[in-house]
Amino acid sequence: MTLEEQDKKYVLQTYARDYTNFVKGVGSTLYDENGKDYIDFASGIGVNSVGHGNETLTSALCEQAKNIIHISNLQVIEPQAQLAQKIVELSGYDMGIFFANSGAEANEGAIKIARKYGETKFDAKRYKVITLEHSFHGRTITTVKATGQESFHTPHFSPYPDGFSYEKSIADVYKAIDGETVAVLIELVQGEGGVQPFEKEEIQKLAAHLKAEGILLIVDEVQTGVYRTGEFLASNLYEIEPDIITLAKGLGGGVPIGAVMTKYKEILSAGDHGSTFGGNYLSTRAGLAVLDVLSKLDDNGTIDETLVYFSKKLQEIVEKYGNLFEKEVGLGLMRGLRARSADIQGNIIKNCMVEGVIVLKAGRNTVRFLPSITISKNEIDEGFKRFEVAIEKVCI
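RESULT FIELD:
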């Protein structure tokens, strides 16, 4: 039985899989079972923030696994407390943190915080959450409903929780607020929605308005957080102070972890929320190792250099292949090339795998790039060399 046959027989087919079998990774380079190498411009959809086989991360995991992997959250967990402190200090916000296992769980926690805030802070209950079209907030029933893409709201999983509405633009949010609105949930850069950043001024204006109205601003930083946009948080880049922030993806460098942080530290009481695995020894030790690596690279300017270098390569592609791409989009190392059609997008992504470079699909015909934050210039050069071969095949 081949690996593909085994997968199709025993694994639920919820993904349109590629059946390349990767067996090793070093930095931002992956190797398949035949020894072929691939430049990884996807990093597990923005998860492998310090690349593959990072010594600091792997050493921390091995050391921790020899001692304690997991105990329940009924006991204090030292690396959990340490990671919470580190995140708060790097964010610059005075917040408390709850640890979960994924971005969807972090967003579930954010919605629960908002719902309790709406129940306890107003004379009349508030529970409605406004999100934006093209947004993506997770795959649970609630976070699917919070996602502003109708294609996710299929009747197969209905009925969905009520209390969510979707607006086309930031300007439309103001008109949608009513006496039952408790929060606005946004991504500062819509990842699945086409790597589309919002304008800084319009976000700052919205944040000020919501604060004046006593409505919570929830920022989903599942993909934008942990230096993905150049700052520790995209919220720092936009110079706003949200009421609630969610994190996941790059925080554990590949080990599942999610986090919801809020300035309303006393809003949840014992028993209001929980997670069996959330914030255990292994995941929080991973988070500490990741932040140790990336904070040092931020301090010495390496991350900024990488962002500039990667952006320059994308600009060169747009200038040279304007017949294929409309423009470059995104921020930091969360980037995209907006293809002129879905066919062009699909063919490029398919060709890239053949040429040994991994890129991703995003909405609005976007070819998405989410390389590790630690990717080297040599790997960037080689990746774009292969990418250009892949797109030239589309030109023929």
